[in-house]
Amino acid sequence: ATPIALLVGTGRGAQMGVLIKGPEVLETSRGIDTIVLDKTGTVTTGTMTLTGTVRADGVSEDELLTIAGALEDASEHPIAKAIATAARTRLGTLPAVESFQNVEGLGVTGVVDGHAAVIGRASLLQDWAVQLPADLQHAKDSAEADGNTVVLVAWDGQARGLLLVGDEVKPTSADAIRRLRALGLRPVLLTGDNATVARRVAASVGIDEVIAEVLPAEKVDVVARLQAEGRKVAMVGDGVNDAAALAQADLGLAMGTGTDAAIEAADITLVRADLLGAVDAIRLSRRTLTVIK
Ligand code: ADP
Ligand code: MG
């Protein structure tokens, strides 16, 4: 039979906005020593905005935003939404897309106004044999050093410019990470974003262990690797790309604002959608386990 304390703990969680899938979840959280945190939408707000553009010679900003905006309009990614919104605000309407492909964790490709376009990470452009000229490479490096996520735009085989996007660290993240440390947990930042941006965010919230440039399908492997090292792992995430890792973790926590896939895969949903909810969840399970031990 289920110990009454677990049921009471589950009920208390609900009052705090910590929705626990079943009483046994509190027991599985015994001995958690590591907490893996997704960056975008978990440590940061996930509400991306376009903060700037850089254009190759002969490319206008309207042209850059037309092609990138039209293509990203077909994607659900927070970066895509930021680009499409900025483009529509500036240009009114966007042209129809003739073909479209989402490349998970890398970007998008497709045809707009007769141009075959590739938009996303450097490795995606490399896959399409697009070279990044030295001036754009420089601009990319310095924008990343400033904490921007840089989206590369190419069409008809040539790099045409950069789109700089960013979001903000949630106001409660640093405090929550301090509290998680005080509970004896080692925080690890896990992200598909580039290492410079990831390290910057990590430093601003007090995390020193950073695993960046991880493809969506690889997040689960990172969690499994930490477990193989003998660590007992909680994971907090929000994205479709976090779902498998949330299921793999000893304790999976999804942001209430997250995708259905993340919420379904997780053991706990944090209604308040910030990391203080994770602190409450860990504290609650420890308190409950002390009572029943
Ligand atoms: P996170 O792990 O931080 O939630 P993702 O795995 O969703 O990030 O994305 C990783 C990276 O892939 C992004 O930082 C971005 O560089 C690139 N990317 C993914 N989707 C898109 C898109 N639709 N347009 C442009 N870039 C994208
Ligand atoms: Mg995310």
The CATH superfamily label of the largest domain reads HAD superfamily/HAD-like
In percent, how helical is the residue content?
A: 40-55%
Distinct ligands: adenosine-5'-diphosphate, magnesium ion
Which CATH first-tier class of the largest domain would you pick? Alpha Beta
Span from first to last CA?
15 Å
Care to describe what's here?
The two termini are 15 Å apart. Helix content is 44%, strand content 24%. With 293 residues, the protein is an alpha/beta fold. The protein has helices at residues 4-16, 24-28, 39-43, 61-72, 78-91, 122-127, 134-145, 173-182, 195-205, 219-228, 243-248, 260-265, 275-292; strands at 18-20, 34-38, 49-55, 97-103, 107-112, 115-120, 149-155, 158-166, 186-190, 209-211, 233-237, 251-255, 268-270. The protein is built from 13 helices and 13 strands. It binds adenosine-5'-diphosphate and magnesium ion. Magnesium ion binds next to helix 3.
Offer a few descriptive terms:
single chain, 293 residues, alpha/beta, Rossmann fold, Calcium-transporting ATPase, cytoplasmic domain N, 7-stranded mixed beta sheet, 6-stranded antiparallel beta sheet, 13 helices, 24% strand, binds adenosine-5'-diphosphate, binds magnesium ion
Question: Summarize this, please?
Answer:
The protein is an alpha/beta fold and 293 residues long. Helices cover 44% and strands 24% of the residues. It has two domains: 4-45 and 169-292, HAD superfamily/HAD-like (Rossmann fold); 49-166, Calcium-transporting ATPase, cytoplasmic domain N (3-Layer(aba) Sandwich), CATH 3.40.1110.
